[in-house]
Amino acid sequence: MSYEYIIVEKYDRVGLIKLDRPEALNALCVGLIGELGKAVADLEADDSIGCLVVTGSEKAFAAGADIKEMVDKDFQTVYREDFITDDWEVLANTRKPVIAAVAGYALGGGCEVAMMCDFIIAADNAKFGQPEITIGTIPGAGGTQRLTRLVGKAKAMDMCLTGRMMDAEEAERSGLVSRIVPVDSLIEEALAAAKKIAGYSLPATMIAKEAVDRAYEVSLSEGLRFERRTFHSTFALEDRREGMMAFIEKRKANWKHR
Ligand code: HXC
């Protein structure tokens, strides 16, 4: 399948989606978001894929929603369409693990798309921001909510009210990104992490992701109960027994369900 605004490649069991609209710093136009939604859905359905990576260019992961497309919209339209569209949510709703590999600008909707992924690996030149306030609006794809949960109220308010950018160091210190790597090795490092994840039992990684995500939705006691039950459910997996047997027999696990 060929796309106009993205490139999709497969490496072993990893699906790599590269946002590719360089003339607009990967601004997330309707066409790009539609293709992203389709590509994510396809990789989610593809049994040969165990982990996804979403990335952009060295200059920009994505500089936000497309301002030129939004400028003439009115309230009736955005309310009626419930803008943003479901395609934006596909990434947030993916059940397979997804890594965002961010170099350059991740602004507005770009930062929000990165935060929809399970974790962010940042290049040392990455810059994150929610600059919507500078164009008279506010984040609309989770920026006020996911950013606040990730970095806390003080930093989130600072970002959303001043519109300033955070560099990679501050983003790592604040808990927005899991690690920083040199920009030249970003894809290599992200693919290595993704291959590692995709090399495990897929139901196990999916259950782990579901359990961590639950922490954002429920109280601690409910979350712990959910974890206990999903932990119990892994004992129904052939791969759980295989993993433990492989450890005891000092050999590599031969996962059945990847
Ligand atoms: C449309 C964009 C764009 C955007 C950049 N471009 N960002 N087009 N929407 N969000 C286009 C520019 O118009 C220009 O094309 C080309 O990309 C290069 O951008 P420059 O500004 O010339 O590059 P530079 O000087 O290097 O500055 C980079 C930048 C700046 C700091 C990232 O482009 C910028 O501030 N962009 C907007 C960031 C932003 O406000 N994002 C939030 C959007 S609102 P032309 O052809 O004009 O030269 C949002 C809400 C999401 O995301 C809510 C959910 C839907």
UniProtKB/TrEMBL annotation:
E.C. no? 4.2.1.17
Q: Name one Pfam family in it.
A: ECH_1
Q: Which GO terms describe its molecular function?
A: enoyl-CoA hydratase activity
Q: Which of UniProt's keywords are assigned here?
A: Lyase
Q: Identify the CDD domains for this entry.
A: crotonase-like
PANTHER family to which the protein is assigned, alphabetical: ENOYL-COA HYDRATASE, MITOCHONDRIAL, ENOYL-COA HYDRATASE-RELATED
Q: Which family does it belong to?
A: Belongs to the enoyl-CoA hydratase/isomerase family.
What name does UniProt use for this protein? Enoyl-CoA hydratase
